[in-house]
Specification:
Pathway: Cofactor biosynthesis; thiamine diphosphate biosynthesis; thiamine phosphate from 4-amino-2-methyl-5-diphosphomethylpyrimidine and 4-methyl-5-(2-phosphoethyl)-thiazole: step 1/1
CATH class: Alpha Beta
Order of helices and strands: EHEHEHEHEHEHEHEHH
Number of helices: 9
Number of strands: 8
EC number: 2.5.1.3
Helix content: 40-55%
CATH architecture: Alpha-Beta Barrel
GO molecular function: magnesium ion binding; thiamine-phosphate diphosphorylase activity
Largest sheet: 8 strands, parallel, barrel
InterPro entries: Aldolase_TIM, ThiamineP_synth_sf, ThiamineP_synth_TenI, TMP_synthase
CATH topology: TIM Barrel
Keywords: Magnesium, Metal-binding, Thiamine biosynthesis, Transferase
Number of domains: 1
CATH superfamily: Aldolase class I
Amino acid sequence: MHRPNPIDFSLYLISSMQALPQGRDLLQAIEQALQGGVDAVQLRDKNLPTSERLALAKELRTLTRRYRARLLINGSVDIALAAEADGVHLGTASLPIAEARSLLGPKRLIGYSAHGLEELSLVAEQGADFATFSPVFFTPSKAAYGSPQGLEQLTRACNTSPMPVFALGGINLSRIPDVRQAGVQGIAVISAILASSEPLRAARTLKTALTEN
């Protein structure tokens, strides 16, 4: 399938207020992460009221434009359009990909959270532009999705998927060489950056590990 939207990022930060150290502001942490090399941000925080989530999306749009980074909204086409985001990130409980595409048009991105090889293949056929594949390693936030996929499954995912794959779940600095060897487009992280007392430094270290030869 021809994909009109090339994926031009490798360090994908997923927002989570719960991951922040006590007293830290989400927007401040994300701006520091952008300064450190994050080149795409997903607004998750799905429990926020819609009005607060839209306001946060608009503030993130301003930040991501300043740093020439992508912004995707988890699950909400309406907020993505209202905030002029680059696209959405969908999952099993979201709109079908075809319906999201009809609302977003051809130029915005559609990412998808895949938790197995069959699901990854299916959403590629349906027109997703890229997918996260998780959990690669154990992480509490993904425990509900079953046992970790492991590096062998991640490698199969990257080798068989016609779209770019991002490793998600328990990714930290020490695991980047292994996931790079599996063939990923990049990594998606939450706590590896947002739980750090120094988000800029954490992001910079991860980005260096992703891009060094």
